[in-house]
Design a protein that fits this description.
- By secondary structure, the protein is an alpha+beta fold.
- The chain has 3 domains: 15-131, no CATH class; 132-203, no CATH class; 204-273, Rec A Protein, domain 2 (2-Layer Sandwich), CATH 3.30.250.
- Helices cover 37% and strands 16% of the residues.
- It has helices at residues 111-120, 133-156, 159-170, 179-192, 194-201, 206-217, 248-255, 259-272; strands at 15-16, 41-45, 53-56, 61-65, 70-74, 97-100, 103-106, 128-130, 221-223, 229-232, 238-241.
- The strands form 4 sheets. Strands 1-3-6 form a 3-stranded mixed β-sheet, with no helix packed on it.
- A hairpin with a 5-residue loop joins strand 9 and strand 10 (229-232).
- Helix 4 (179-192) crosses helix 5.
- It is elongated and about 90 Å long.
- The N and C termini lie far apart (108 Å).
């Protein structure tokens, strides 16, 4: 009679966190106060990693306690009410911390594990992170508000400032653009780069730099081949020397604010008109 053979179920070995025996410590917990919200929590591996199983180190890890002034060993066990080894009593039954498909659900009754992962584990934020919908919404709201501010600003600024900002992005090509093209590209730039756009708009020198570039393009003034001096375009008389390690047009913009520079600015302005 043939022996009856059973089908053996294949078991996938979990991916182990690749660490040395000593794990770096983290100096500050994410939450400093004593209020801990009792709720279910979800954790995800960072960088969109989603292996079938992933084992997070749950022992031989340390956290520096600033109040006590020394490192405290951490360990996750199934029979202790704390993750701090110096607070444990009796037998310590080590428990594995396993992410499945890149995530780990920890119910509200597992507060020891939650606090270990959310407050003390040295790899929180780098290897894994707690899912925080409210914080994600707040961050996205901040981004949207900056984008709206940038678009509203772009919609309302005058053509000279629009030209000055876009010259930073597209260079001398801006001189060939129609007002409609300029406005369109300005709105697109503000939408895609809201922080940089607002920084440029609020830069007091951006229009002065644009003024200097326009004057150079029209040969009212010119810059020397080594970009160390600005000269009158008509007679090559030197106007100013660019300080070492400064951008030529940034230096020119600052110079326009001096007594001598203001006189030159007024003269150039007349020729531009």
């Amino acid at each position: 009679m043939a022996k009856k053979t059973g089908n053996k179920k294949k078991v996938t070995a979990p991916i182990l966190e690749n660490n040395t025996d000593v794990v770096e410590t983290i100096t500050k917990p994410e939450v400093k106060n004593n209020t801990w919200e009792i709720k279910d929590r979800m954790y995800y591996l960072t960088k969109n990693r989603s292996p079938l199983t992933y084992l997070i180190r749950g022992s031989n890890i340390f956290w520096f306690d600033e109040e006590k002034g020394y490192e405290r060993e951490l360990k996750y066990t199934s029979n202790q009410r704390t993750c701090f080894v110096d607070e444990m009593k009796g037998e310590q039954r080590l428990e594995h911390i396993i992410f499945q498909n890149g995530s780990l659900f920890v119910p509200k009754n597992k507060t020891v594990l939650q606090k270990l992962l959310s407050l003390y584990h040295p790899h929180r934020g780098s290897l894994f992170e707690e899912h925080k919908p409210a914080q994600i919404a707040a961050d996205e709201l901040d981004i949207l508000e900056v984008e709206i501010e940038a678009l509203n600003t772009a919609k309302n600024i005058d053509i000279d400032l629009a030209e000055a900002v876009m010259r930073v992005e597209v260079g001398s090509k801006v001189s060939e653009m129609s007002s409609k093209e300029l406005k369109r590209d300005l709105l697109i730039y503000a939408k895609n780069n809201p922080d940089v756009f607002l920084e440029l708009v609020n830069d007091p020198n951006v229009q002065l730099r644009n003024f200097g570039i326009k004057a150079t393009e029209l040969n009212i003034i010119k810059i020397s081949p080594d970009q160390r001096n600005f000269l009158w375009g008509s007679n090559d008389r030197k106007l100013m020397t660019v300080p070492f390690d400064e951008h030529p047009y940034s230096a020119l913009a600052s110079w326009f604010k001096t007594d001598e520079g203001m006189e030159v600015y007024a003269s150039i302005e007349k020729q531009l008109k």
